Amino acid sequence: MRIAVLSSGGKDSSAAWWWAMCRGWDVVAIVTVKIQDGDSHMFQVPTTNWVENQAHLAGISWIGVPASGSVEDEIEALERELSQLDIDAVVSGALRSDFQKQRLDCMCQRLDIHSFSPLWHQSPIEHLRGMVNAGFEIMITSVSCEGLDHNWLGCVLDESALSKLHELSLQHRFNVDGEGGEYETFVLGGPIWPRSFKVEGEKQYSANRGLYKIHSVF
Predict the structure, then answer these.
(1) Is the pTM higher than 0.90?
(2) Mean pLDDT of 88-94
(3) Fewest Cβ atoms nearer than 10 Å: which of 44, 93, 117, 120?
């Protein structure tokens, strides 16, 4: 099975990437939709410019797909790029967004390839615990909900931090896995790569949103 993995560099797409590797499939490309202006209803925006480093360290080709941030343009741009690849399937880290999964499934149907979402409807906290236990180093790169302040920016989740995150999610009623955009992540290391990344960056935050802006990954 020759596949392309859709990756933002965050935890969910990294888990999906690892799932495909564990099945023994040939990951021929890591594909990142790069939003050029504003936010996106489909894809993560922060830190996606560093996915190329992840792909390079894994020895896999990386493809960046520029898109405007409208759903139509994102899907059309992605579909054009995928249509040029010799692949049997696309693997994504979709968790619970029907909006996202349906559009990816329909795109793959038009391309006559399979669409796999191995994380679909997994238990949020068990998904995170599984990744931490497997050795994934998940760094929080943005926060945008009550209960998560700027002290979480740049935090790498371990068992202790994950327990605290879970407690806060119950107290403030946000999604512990960030599925509602409460936070976003970048993965510094894990079983996909031969070593971990180091990053340099700075915290930027306002009253209701914070960002860990990465300046370099090495």
Answers:
(1) yes
(2) 97
(3) 120
- Per-chain mean pLDDT for the chain: 95
Q: Is 49 helix (H, G, I), strand (E, B) or coil?
A: helix
- Cβ-contact 1, 87 below 8 angstroms: no
According to DSSP, the β-strands at 61-67 and 26-35 are parallel
* DSSP 8-state assignment for residue 121: T
Strands 210-217 and 137-143: antiparallel
* Cα gap 195→57, rounded to integer Å: 8
C-alpha distances in angstroms, 21 versus 8, 54, 167?
17, 15, 32
Give residue 33's pLDDT.
95
Residues 53, 153, single domain; the answer is: no
Q: What is the spatial distance between Cα 21 and Cα 168, in angstroms, rounded to a whole number?
A: 33
Q: What CA–CA distance (Å, rounded) separates 62 from 32?
A: 8
Structural domain range at position 44 = 2-116
> What CATH number does residue 173 fall under?
3.90.1490.10
Q: Which residues of 164-191 are buried (b: 16+ CB within 10 A; e: fewer)?
A: ebeebbeeeebebbbeeebbbbbbbbbe
CA 89 to chain centre: 18
Q: With cut-offs at 50, 70 and 90, classify the pLDDT of residue 171.
A: very high
Q: What is residue 3's three-state secondary structure?
A: strand
DSSP label at residue 50: G
What is the predicted pLDDT for the residue at 46?
Answer: 80
Q: Region 103-123: what's the mean pLDDT?
A: 97
Measured N-to-C along each axis, helices 124-133 and 159-172 cross at an angle, to the nearest 10 degrees, of 170
